[in-house]
Input
Amino acid sequence: MLKKRKFIGTSFAITVALFLTACNAEKQNSEQAIINLDESSELITIENEGMKIDYTEAPTRAISVNQHVTEVMLALGLEDSMIGTAYLDDEIYEPLQTAYDKVPVLAEQYPSKEQVIASEADFIYGGWASAFNDKGLMSREELKELGIDSYLQSSSVKVAPTLEDIYTDIRNIAKIFRVEERGEKLIEEMNNDIGDIIEKLPKKKDSIDVLVFDSGSNDVFTATQNFLNTLVTMAGGENVFGDIEDNWATVSKEDAVERAPEAIVVIDYGSTTAQEKIDFLKSDPALSKIPAVQNEHFVVLPLSAASEGVRVAEALEVLAKGLYPDSYK
Output
């Protein structure tokens, strides 16, 4: 494989500046909320992943499933509108811990269909498509038949999502719950925090080829063109599997070795610890040949920070410091 190199300097700074400038503007696309106001200014219509839902009032009995969308709800101050949450990947974001403690935890993973019905929920907010299939709760169509509205985080299911796609999701949730001002304030805070991190990025550094290691023993399950790919690029790296047009992909060990990543981002979540994943990479006969493994250049990133939620600045800082540790000494 021909190894592409990018020079991170003036051109990168300009790209980032344009990227953040674009994020300050409301992007008009098919996933953004369409607002219709009746005479009493109560009706809001949301088009989301193929479903169109009318809201005459804000939900009051919401359930969030998947951690990154739970954190969106909490960051918007909606804990009093939540009757439950489920499916943490790791520790809740520390600034949101107090709010999180007020919300009942319904299940370690997805709650059962019976639990959802018994809860008398009026809204389900899912972070991944798996929340609304047979292995999750139930389909969104089934929920609708039960009188339960739903929202699927669009930025988590589309290929090559941008920061603006995350902001669109935040705006949609803020509109559904009638807290638009909070939504804009949250986006402004996120943009400011991201800008602060970008200003501190190392200047004039060659990009580092990066492999994202989620899991796998016989093969490698890796991030391709999901938002983590965007984060790696923003931090000054280049995802070695960023050419695959999907969010995630399973690739062979041989392919991972051939692409010779110089750093490995280890996604931390679930019952297998990040250190156990690192130990596996170092002990595997094939993967141990990767330059990143031989040089022990690992960057551990919580899945909740890597996902399409409110922790973009935190993830960017972890990646930048992990990829260029000498620049932060």
User: Anything to note?
Assistant: Residues 1-15, 25-40 have pLDDT under 50 and may be disordered. Residues 162 and 234 are 11 Å apart (CA to CA).
